[in-house]
Amino acid sequence: MRWSQLFVPTLRDAPNDAVAPSHALLVRGGFIRQLHAGHYSMLPMGWRVHQKVAQIVREEIDAIGGQEFLLPTMHPAEIWKQSGRWDTMGEIMFRLVDRKGGDTALGITHEEIFATVASELSSYKQLPQLWYHIQTKFRDEARPKSGLLRVREFHMKDSYSFDIDQAGLDRQFDAHDAAYRRIFERIGVPAFGVEASSGAMGGNSSVEFMTPSDAGEDDVARCANCGYSANIEKATSALPAVTDDAPPPAPERFATPGVRTIAALEEFEGGAAADRQLKTLVMMLDGEIVLAVVRGDHQLNVQKLIDATGAITVRAAEPEEALAALGARPGSLGAVGVTDLRIIMDEALRGRTNMTTGANTDDWHLRGVDVARDITVSAWADLREVSAGEACVNCGQPIEIVRCIEIGHIFKLGTVYAEKFGVMVSDADGKEAPVVMGSYGIGIGRNMAAAVEANYDDKGIIWPVSIAPFECVITLMRLDEATLAAGEQMYTELKAAGVDVLLDDRDARAGVKFADAELVGIPYRITVGPKGLASGEVEVTERRSGETINVALDAVVATVAERVAGATQTRKS
RNA sequence: CGGGAUGUGGCGCAGCUUGGUAGCGCACCUGCUUUGGGAGCAGGGGGUCGAGUGUUCAAAUCACUCCAUCCCGACCA
Question: Where are the domains of chain A?
């Protein structure tokens, strides 16, 4: 390809609304352009990278036995009603109505659709199966952000495994775990797996793959000592044991005029330390008022509450709703004596006595509360969010909290979809058995952005060779006959040697060409000009290190081809 | 959804307070000179200022409504 003919609209200034480095650089480098919030056009350079990422994903999934499909993007409502997710998915799903009045949805994921296809499986002898496609997903995100990192329309590789038993699922799950690690290594994104909440996908266990980045949206609790790592939505930690004084025979009411917060009650004469208080959160779960109680110095993690209750929509109750339900305003609320509401109690409060909490009368609190004795607990659950510095549950060393981008997520689904969609096969005894499923997702565009987040400097992107839009650029310093001829010969020979090469034949100054090559992140640059040609040499510059070596004209093709091959791990299979 | 901010040629911005029908840098086109790290000079093209309504002799500028985009938050009693 000749740069003079290639549409690469590079920008000297980043759009001022691009905050994440990958967003700013992909726009500046002429890879993407925004159409509207959460929808991006892939320009030629961007699409080249996207396709290379997708191809690596394809190779690795093929290598563990994947069969590539292409399923529809638009789905009838019925299939989503059959799984129950038409209602549970809520506003994330784009919905439309066709000319006949039929409810239709744009696919956010494809468990339902693949399960429908899989209902034609009939014998355990056909298993295992591993099916996948790389296809557009639509998700009406509440807040698209950070360029390609969170969008409403994107390509995802989603695969689905079908096995006769749990052991088979475990094997396919582990195979994906390994394949995903190879993918991230090949595309140059540092990654590690974490325990995760399965959320709306259902199923019994899942692993998320994370890459550390300030541009991310997930917090991960990690232990540097033993390697424990879990999404903050799932993470636990060990707390020091607490011994409470024996409580009085019954809670005591006491006046606390003007005290509205945990901190204020700590200061108040006759109050209590935060870790001796009960924090009562009034939550609205699918329209039902529920009390979630955590220790005064702890914070509720909403996803944990969702996982513990199976709720679909969760929000904090409005102060008026709390007043109506409990008779007091936030700041004076408590669970003691409440019998008409579900009360979910955090595990950290198990066995606690002599606690202080709101009395459900404005400006009054209760002390001497024994959690087990005085509160009608509906369920105990892990609700609290862990904090940096707390002790690791495995080894006791302090944990850290790391901001990450979620770059992949794999789920063990079990038989839930099989049962809903009749994916039944005859087992070895001739009896009908539900197929055990797994699902595995990886966003192509997000990984492209994550690769930028992990590979850039003040000059621009530093693409890993494996996914660079071009592996090498030949920068012509002049467009005189000799330079052009040398460059074109080199271009032809590099192509023949299998190198993905771009010829910068633009009539522009050296500085412009150098700056553009660096901004768009091409790993190797061959600089060809009259100066070098006079002594039969050209320069080869590596983008990442900035190092330049002089190479004899007749050796440059072999030199570059060798380096490119050395930097690209291709699958041997 | 809550809060904040912003919408003026392709990109970055000024003008708005104190209304008088649009300006700068980069980019683009032409010419000359230049040419190994984002050239110089000269000439030129392109916007009616997010949309609508209102006030006014007159609106980018004032008022109201709407739309869009970005950021933060969405338990913190």
Answer: 3-235+401-453, 252-381, 470-567
Q: What are the backbone dihedrals phi and psi of residue A251, each rounded to the nearest 5 degrees, phi first?
A: -60, 145
Tell me how crowded residue A177 is: count the other CB atoms within 10 A of its CB. Answer: 15
Say yes or no: Cβ of A14 under 7 A from any atom of strand B.
yes
Please check whether residue A429 is in contact with residue A127, taking contact to mean a CB–CB distance below 8 angstroms: no
The domain at A3-235+401-453 falls in which architecture?
2-Layer Sandwich (3.30)
CA of A121 to C1' of B53 (A): 63
What are the φ/ψ torsions at residue A329 (nearest 5 degrees)? -100, 160
DSSP state at residue A48? H
The predicted structure's pLDDT at residue A199:
66
Q: Which amino acid belongs to residue A188?
A: G
pLDDT per residue as tens digits for the range A298-337: 999 988 998 888 887 788 888 888 888 888 888 889 999 9
d(CA A233, CA A383): 9
Residues composing chain A: 573
DSSP line for A81-117: HHHTHHHHTGGGS-EEE-TT--EEEE-S--HHHHHHH
Question: Is there contact between A551 and strand B, defined as CB under 7 Å from any strand atom?
Answer: no
CATH class of A470-567: alpha beta
CA dist., res. A407 & res. A444, Å (int): 9
CATH code of the region A252-381:
3.90.960.10
Which nucleotides along chain B are within 7 A of a protein C-beta?
A: 1-2, 10-13, 25-27, 35-39, 68-77
Instruction: Compute the distance between CA of residue A573 and CA of residue A570 in angstroms, rounded to an integer.
Output: 9
What average pLDDT is seen over chain A?
93
Query: Measuring from the CA of residue A16 to each C1', which nucleotide is nearest?
Result: B12
- pLDDT score of A404: 93
Residue A34 contacts strand B, CB under 7 A: yes
- What is the 3-class SS of A378-426, one letter each residue? CEEECCECCCCCCECCCCCCECEEEEEEEEEEEEEEECHHHHHHCCEEE
A426 beta partners? A123, A432
Distance CA A8, CA A31 (A): 7
- For residue A21, say if its preceding peptide bond is cis, omega within 30 degrees of 0: no
Nucleotide nearest to A519 in CA–C1' terms? B38
Q: Is the CB of A29 under 7 A from strand B?
A: no
